[in-house]
Every structure is written in structure tokens, then in C-alpha cells.
Amino acid sequence: MNYKIWAFACAFCVGVGLGGAQARAETCGGIYKVQSGDSLSLIADRQYKNAGYWTAIHQNNIAKIGQRPDNISIGMKLDLLCIDGLPTGLEGGVAPAAALVAVQPLQVAPGTAASAKKINFLTADDYAPFTDRKALNGGLVTELIQKTMERANPPEGFAIHWVNDWSAHLEPLLSNALLDMGFPWLKPDCAATPDNYRCANFLFSDSMFEMLVLVFTAKDRPIAFSTDADMEGKTLCRPKGYYTHDLDKDGRNWLAEGKITLVMPDKNAECFALLLDGKVDAVVVDEFTGRATMKELGIGDRIEVVQSRPLSIEGLHVVVHKSHPRAAELMALVNKGLAEIKADGTYQQVIGPHMQLIWAEF
Questions:
Q1: C-beta neighbour count of 150 within 10 angstroms
Q2: Which residue in 9, 14, 40, 123 has the fewest CB atoms around it within 10 Å?
Q3: Integer Cα distance of 44 and 51 in angstroms
Q4: Quick one: pLDDT at residue 26?
Q5: What residues form DSSP beta bridges with 313?
């Protein structure tokens, strides 16, 4: 993905002697309490002046809402991101950004003989906003790994290495313990497909981050997606090389039983071209990939996201090969550090700025 990521340079402008309500009015984002008659799109329309931002609310509150965006109830407290200076006046808001400055590329020191004694993580570029040295702090998941391991504080230390050949990561680099752990990787439905290569050979951490996989349709040819049966007989598009496990999981079996036709061209842009030409019914990709492509092609006014539900929610994980002599120990260390930064608020402090920047770019 080609993201132009920016960093916020924040300025706090609350003057001396301001009352709580006035100070709150100068903040951005915060906690919204669900009211009678609310839906995520109505909240987004009211708070962001854009009903399409319902996915930003959903993604930022997946742990509370779950997979269905209509699973909200009166009194539920939703954490709303600051996006383009909105919303304002909510409890728990932050100072709005005063300026945007270009992110400096992440500088990574080359490995040395001493690195071999550390816990060594493996990732690569070109997976923005999750991992990319041109992104803020190396990407959202990279920064989460950094904070997780700083909290875990292993006595031998840790290091993150970049090898820009994703195809070599699982085999042979991790399978031969040339490096210890890799990120970020999707986890297939291992309960249903235990013989899947990743399921059979790797341990997965708890989810570092969860993303929405959405259904993108042409505005002049909308489709319904309230139940899985609504997609039967449809032709869907997803780029070559992408995962397909979500098309069969939870008893869906769209591919396994031939319930849908899947078209897989080389590029995501080709999927959207096929959609606009009427050759496929929908594009099904993660939100960040889809929205970035729409912006790149300038077709945002011709595409819409099905609002009833996402196709799936996919977690991004750390993996370690089961043959690694410290596999269980290393995974327990990651999960412990991750749980601790989620518990004390560090996790959200990392996620917030990244998501604000991503949505500002869209």
C-alpha cells in the first residue's frame, strides 16, 4: 500500500483559568455515550459530519461492539478518535493537532554479533500502516511491538530486523530459527483447518491489532449483506496473494462449497476497475487497503461501503515456529507485555495517533 503518512505536532492551547466545560470544548475526540435511536452511522454523521466514518468508530471499539456494528446499546461508552479536528466537546478528548509535519524514515541500526543473543523479531516494509520504515515509528504494529517488549523487559534484550522479502519470512528464516519471531501475520481459522501450514507449524500471539474487512460496492449497484446467504451467487474480487480463509470460516463455506465466485487479479486497483465495469459485484479487502486504493484512483464518489456489517474482523499477530526451543516461553512473554500495555492505557496511546493520521489521509 502506498500511504503518505504524517505526524501530528500538537500544541495545547487551553488558557489559565478556563472552566472545565470551556476547556473540554477545545479538545478533540473523547468518549461518546450511546443514546436511544443511535446507530454508528448516525453517531458518525453527528460527530464527524460524515456518516461514512462509522467504520472508524467500529474499528476503534471492536472489543466492545464485536463484529456487527448494530451491536450497541444505550449507555455504552464509545471511544471516538480525533479526525480532522472532530468531534469536539466530549469528555476525555485530547488537544487537537496544530500542524502536520512529514514523518522521518525510521533509522534501524544494522545487526551485529551481539544481536544474536537478543530476542530477534522479523518484519518488512510495504505493509503500511502496519509496518513500513517510512511510516510513523515504523508503522502501527511495529510501535506496538516496541512498547510490548519494553514492558516485557527480557534480560537479553530484543531487536527488530527488516528483511524485504515477505516470502522468505516463514520459510526459511523463522522455520530455521534464524530469527526468533515475526510480525504481523494473519491467523487462519485453525479450529476448522488445523492442517493449514501456519496452523500446523506456528504459534500465534494474542491479536496485536484488529482490522475490518469490508464489502466495497458500486454506488449505482448496491448489494445487501445482512446475512451470509445474501452473498451466495455473487462474484467477489480480492487481489492475488491475499488470504481467503475468511470466505469459509464460521460455517460460511463460500469457496469450499462454490457459493460465490472469487476473482483474483494481480492488483487491488484492478478489482475496483472490475467493480466499476460491472464485472464483479463487490471488492472484499481490509478497510485500509480499500480506502487507500479508492483515494489513489479518485473514485471515492463512485464507491460505497456496505454498512450493515463487515465481512470479517482479522487480527494481526506475532508468530514463532513451533520447533523453536523457546517457542512457548517467547510467546508467553509477548502476550504478557501486550496485556500489560493494554491494561495501563499505553496501547491506546499508540493506536490513537496512528489512526488519526490514517483517517486524516483518507
A1: 12
A2: 9
A3: 5
A4: 79
A5: 212
Buried b (16+ CB within 10 A) or exposed e, 30-66: bebebeeebebbebbeebbeeebbbbbbbbbbbeebe
pLDDT digits (tens, 9 = 90+) for 172-189: 999 999 999 999 999 999
- What range does the domain containing 289 cover? 210-313
Residues 59 and 195 in one domain: no
- The verdict on whether omega for the bond into residue 129 sits within 30 degrees of 0, i.e. cis, is yes
DSSP state of 169: I
The low-confidence residues of the chain, meaning pLDDT below 50, are 1-24, 98-100
User: What pLDDT is stored for residue 113 in this prediction?
Assistant: 64
285 and 157 co-located in one domain: no
Q: Are residues 200 and 338 in the same domain?
A: yes
Count of domains observed in the chain: 3
What angle (nearest 5°) sits at the alpha carbon of residue 155, between those of residues 152 and 160? 65
Residue 220 lies in a domain: yes
Residues 66 and 124 in one domain: no
Computed on alpha carbons and rounded to an integer, the radius of gyration of the chain in Å comes to 21
User: Which three cell numbers, joined as nine digits, stand for 264?
Assistant: 483474483
Calculate the dihedral angle through the C-alpha atoms of 350, 353, 359, 362, rounding to the nearest 10 degrees. -110
**pLDDT computed for residue 85 by the predictor:** 86
Q: Give the CATH number for residue 173.
A: 3.40.190.10
355 vs 132: CA distance, rounded Å: 15
Same domain? For 328 and 188 the reply is yes
Name beta bridge partners: 211. Answer: 314
- Look up residue 349 and give its three cell numbers: 496511546
What's 61's domain CATH number?
A: 3.10.350
The whole-model pTM stands at: 0.84
- Residue 93: what pLDDT? 87
Q: Are both 282 and 233 inside the same structural domain?
A: yes
Is residue 101 assigned to a domain? Answer: no
* Amino acid, res. 309: R
Say if CB 341 and CB 141 are below 8 A apart. no
Q: Is residue 228 in a domain?
A: yes
Between CA 24 and CA 17 the distance in angstroms is: 13
